[in-house]
Amino acid sequence: MSTPVEITWLLAAVTKGDGGAFERLYAATCAKLYGVVLRILRRPDLAADVMEEAYLQIWRRAGEFDPGQSTPLAWMVAIARRLAIDRSRQPQPGDGDGEGELIDDNEGPGSVPRHQLTDDLKRLLTCIGRLEPDRQRMILLAYYGAFSREQLSVKLDMPVNLLKASLRRSLVEIEQCLKL
Amino acid sequence: MSEIVTGNTDALAAEYVLGTLDPEERTQAQSLLEADQDFVAKVRLWERRLGELHLMVEPVEPEPKIWDRIKAKMPELIPAPELSVAPPEPPPADVVPPPAEPAPPAPQAASAASVGETLPPTPTLPPIIPSPPPTPPATTAPAPAEVTPPPPPPPAKPAVAPVLTPSGRRSPDELKTEPKAEPRKDQSAVMRGRLARWRVFAGLMTLVVLAVGALLSAWRFAPERVPPVLRPAEVLRVIGVSVAGSAPPRRPAPPESQFDE
What does pTM read for this prediction? Predict the structure, then answer.
């Protein structure tokens, strides 16, 4: 995995229309983006569509990346995630016809190699860790699987209204804890 | 809708980023994103707050055909004319070293099929252990953004391909195997024809220059040996310049007058 500095550099080159840099950017980041997207969509065919759209957007919008706002990979992941969530909310054409192989639910986060545990992530995990265990699980499930409240309420066996209130309280607490 | 009415766009932004909105709410959030800069800022902030969570996602190597699909959409994005004109320039980077070639993402032991197995069935927070030197995130980034990234040209592929198929989609096979010979032959035959014509033209012009040069030096250094038809007065007369009838006396005069004084 390339460092944020290298990825920022590649993004800057892509802004100038450098196709070679774009190819290297893809090579350096595609596994991460695909991991994120596949976890949300759980179908390789849909994930491939989203990857294509995500990288075309990254190509077009590379100039919008602001190094002061986020890391380059987080910026790219945000684009891919947004598209994946949009896609997951659409009726899915391949559903039920056996065309796309459905990958098993994978709800939880993996582990982070220690050298990748950034200060920002540590702060965030500390804040999430202050929530009650049930709410920790809810937030992480929501983020990694991008489940709607209805889906979450089924998974967590919790009435939707209660879940919504709990979700929002948790987000407010995370916001206050981060002071960001 | 109730969120917008009550002005509770904070929660909407947070849930938009988290990904828990239902389709209808998501559509509302998206139209708000186009209309309301305030809301855009809130969404950006939440993306920043939660952004680093991606570090806990296991990378999964995508199939190569995904890149082929993206690449197939690229010709319309790459400014092709510029590439076809510009020769493959030598690496110009003498100021900035080219970025280290990113290692091809490590072949993931967990392929798409086995994603589930690599992950715990229920999410738990990994232990937060202070790690020796955490890679600094955003803070290190600003500088390189201004550095002009050297384009270390990936050998000729982008430069050649658009020339061959300026508008067409490139199929993966075409790119992997060296581009086939027919189109190139056509191109080079045309080029050779043009080159030959220019060479002939240049040769003729050189001859003309040599002839004029020879005539001028003959006039200057050996006027008496120049055949009468080619003497200045005669030439000027042929060309149609009137010399006011003073040609014969004037011709021998200049050299002599020089020596007289």
Answer: 0.58
